[in-house]
Amino acid sequence: MNKHLVTKAVAIVATVGLGITLAGCSSGGATGGAAAVDSADYTGPKVTIDFWNGWTGGAAPKIVPALIEKFNAEHENIEVKNVAMEWADIAAKMPLAIKAGKGPDVAVAHGDDVATYAAQGLLLDSGDIVDTLGYGEDDFPEGLFEGNQYQGTQYGIPWSVTPLGLYTNNDVLKAAGVDTTAPTDAASYEENLAALKAAGVQGEWVDGYVFTGTFEFESLVWQFGGDLFNDDVTKATFNSEAGVKALTHMVDQIDKGYSPANVPQDGNFNALVAGETAYNWNGVWQTTNEALQDVDFSVAPVPQIGTEKAVWSSSTDWIFPNNKGQDTNETSAAATFVKWMNDNSAGWAETGELPAANDVRNDPALVEKYPNLEPFLEQLPYAHYETVAPGISAATAEITTAVGEAVLGKKSPQDALDDAAAQADKILEQNAQTYGG
């Protein structure tokens, strides 16, 4: 499994238990204090700020320290210390560190973690920070800025986005006599999969893991007009008619012989690299995977199987921890660092993530330098991001359970989704008690 995927997958598992971990150091559901930042350019005395992040694999360990080194060279009164650790370790360590006043001055979290941290009073209200830095919802992809809000308060600033795309092994298609033009809808996708099967190739390997079966399922739910939860995130809705259609589509790939049964973790991506399959729904992060560099591959938007265009995407977001005794100068310096990093985030594309800042991401030079990013950029207008609610990771983990049970033939799509939704509803009820309304 790709190291980048390992750290993110483990983080998802860790955050499933985050509500329990945080409940032990809860501040009664109170939100963090406000952060005073007078200027986008910190002019106070020299300070050292700690930056926690989970980029330990792929190209990020080269890019992030290089950006920090450049920032430090340009700011005599700010020294940023890069503290990289596994995402799961951040989830485990940061709450207690913040309560003890030993947490970072700035950190990066996934979009579905921000509300959980905020509900526990672990984050500073960053409303004044975003105002001082000049940020608003129009500076980022639609829905991403407000995705950093909890109970009407801004707690985060978008940093990167990572949508799914359709990866294609062109050699496999050519050998099977199938057009290498990417399928765009259910009909063209079915036609190509049938042609591949006739040539002895199982064209898309479907798995039951977070990476990437869950993400494919969620994309399909939205494509069929459904959603994962109701508007106030008190009830699971992924077992709706749209959810059943989505999961049935995935199971059908196995039943029709387009996919083998019991695909192991990352088996679909490895099969694409090995020339054993033609298509793989996977994230933008794979564009920089060294395993693909000797493969004649291309990427395209995921096909529209349902009635609407939709695709899953994750995000990473800047957060300002509410450390006990947090130094206001360090918070101000951290805000300057965040603004600088966003302004200089074009190189972030080299790590397989898209800059969230519209003015950086939409610069034509970005696609000229990284042409494989174009299909992912094309999908952002209809991308769906993580559900925003405290403790949501435990509820979304039930989606993976349902997908796994269905694709392994243990339960029908309807039964798997109904059972998972019932468990998710219990978790959502418990979340309401743990984190408050």
SSE layout:
Layout lengths: L2 H14 L1 H6 L23 E7 L6 H15 L3 E7 L2 H13 L6 E5 L3 H6 L7 H7 L15 E2 L2 E2 L1 E14 H7 L9 H13 L11 H14 L17 H15 L11 H8 L4 E5 L13 E4 L10 E9 L8 H16 L10 E2 L2 H4 L2 H6 L4 H6 L3 E2 L7 H16 L5 H23 L2
Parallel strand pairs: 1-2, 1-3, 9-11
Antiparallel strand pairs: 3-9, 4-5, 6-7, 6-8, 6-9, 6-10
Helix pairs in contact: 1-4, 1-16, 9-10, 9-16, 16-17
Protein architecture, described:
The structure is a single chain. This protein is globular. It has 437 residues and is of the alpha/beta class. It is built from 17 helices and eleven strands. It starts with a helix and ends with a helix. The model is unreliable at 1-31 (pLDDT under 50). The longest helix is centred in the C-terminal third of the chain and has 23 residues, at 413-435. Helix 1 packs across helix 4 (87-99). It has two domains: 3-162 and 315-384, 3-Layer(aba) Sandwich (D-Maltodextrin-Binding Protein, domain 2), CATH 3.40.190; 165-313 and 390-435, Periplasmic binding protein-like II (D-Maltodextrin-Binding Protein, domain 2), CATH 3.40.190.10.
